[in-house]
User: Fold this.
Amino acid sequence: MRLLERRSARTAAWAPRLWRPSDQAGAVLRAMAERMLTAPDTVCLGSEDAVLLGVRRDAGRVVVDHLESVSDDADELARLLTSVPAEAGEVAVFTPLADEVRLRATDAAGFVATGRWWVRDLPISLAVAGNLGAPRPGYSLAPPPPFHDPGGPIAVIGKATSAQDLVEIGVDAAAREARVAVVIAGPGSPLEALAAEAAYQPVAELRAR
Assistant:
């Protein structure tokens, strides 16, 4: 638990608005970790000095969200990644691009990006909800997890036809009080290229072998 709390503190140093820790982040993270540690679909490896905590998802995949070392030892974390039993399924790691330790660990373990999060902060809108028309297609509004505080809902964008379309989707979402827009795309996909053109910034990857 100490290592998981350390992660929350480290995140605050680099987190964009999407992952800005909320006032309740510590308590919520502890409660979530306690549930995960007793859940049958959780994979937990490590020692007092390093920990890997992941959850089995559909299609035989283990998604690792917690990967921490007291000494920021990337080699030790890489060993944990390669120690997940084969019967647990394919291992994927959520990897913030500002977390140099996790980047080195996944590189050392032979992981490569399979998906990338592109994020753009949205301008505060003065639109009145009652004057809004129907939402533009291509995105949905999602509440942030309780341990994050971006300042409003998140616009999750699933499709766009152009960079300008992405910009206009963001304007529409901001008018509905969204504060952050997120594009999730595979490396090299057309949607990723549009996100870069529309001034979105890559902030995290899902990495797998």
